[in-house]
PRC-barrel domain-containing protein (Paracoccus isoporae), 321 residues
Amino acid sequence: MRKFLLTTALVLPLSGMAFAQDADTAAEDTMEDAAQATENAAESAADAAGDAADAAGDAASDAADATTDAAGDAADAAGDAAADAGDAAEDAGDAAADAADAETETMDADATMEADSDMAAETEMEGDAAMEADPAMEGDAAADPGASAESMDAEAAAEDAEAAAMEAEMANSDKIAREQSGNELRVDWITGASVTSPDGDSIGDVNDIIVDSESGSMIAAIVGVGGFLGIGEKQIALPWDQLTINYDAEEITSELTQEEADAAPEYVFRERESAPAPAGATDGMATDPAADPAMAPADPAAAPADPAAADPAAEPAAPAN
């Protein structure tokens, strides 16, 4: 019994030590497992963050590529639309030119037909007059109508050739102007245009133009100053050589300031006069007795020989018995 107790006393401490050693080993294993789990979790989180960053980069790259493609497509569409608009404008210009050419050809054809009709009528009248003057010609024409038709065709062809020659001559003639030059302006462009001062202030609009009847040169532009909607507006004349006209009269500048224009006197127009009668016509009217009945000579044959017969009331009455 004593041995058993001694043995038990010896075994129990040794068992406690072994159990404590096993507990320490389990704790170390648990700590190692926890550390390994933490490390694995960190690696997983890092991998997930890397994957997310890669996905975000890919999405941004795809979005940039899509934006670039969309901008390129929009630019191509705008270019195509502009090209189509240019082609449409060119086609419209060609159509307008063709219409103008067709109208010109129609007018030329109408003029030619009218001239041919007039020439045919004149030729017919001349032929009738010649036949009336020479009855033998009428008999010849009736005997040979083909010869008369050939003669009329020949005359018509000659007149057509003469008309074509005249058109060719007039096409190169200095008597007409055929096309407006780049430095030439239309009066319609100038009237209504706004005139500004050197400072850019509006003076008024051009209402009329004064032209020298002898030289044909421009003298002045009539500009309406002040007023409201044409009411109370005064007309002043700006010398033509003091105006600067740019861009086909889209901009007209004067040396006059707005204050000077407001203080300028109103331009005085003259009344339009009728042309004087030719000197020869005036002299003829003065010397022609037929123009003035009072100056016509008396007709002796129409005057009564006996003045008393001209007025029965003037004859004295016979005395009564």
Summary: The radius of gyration is 58 Å.
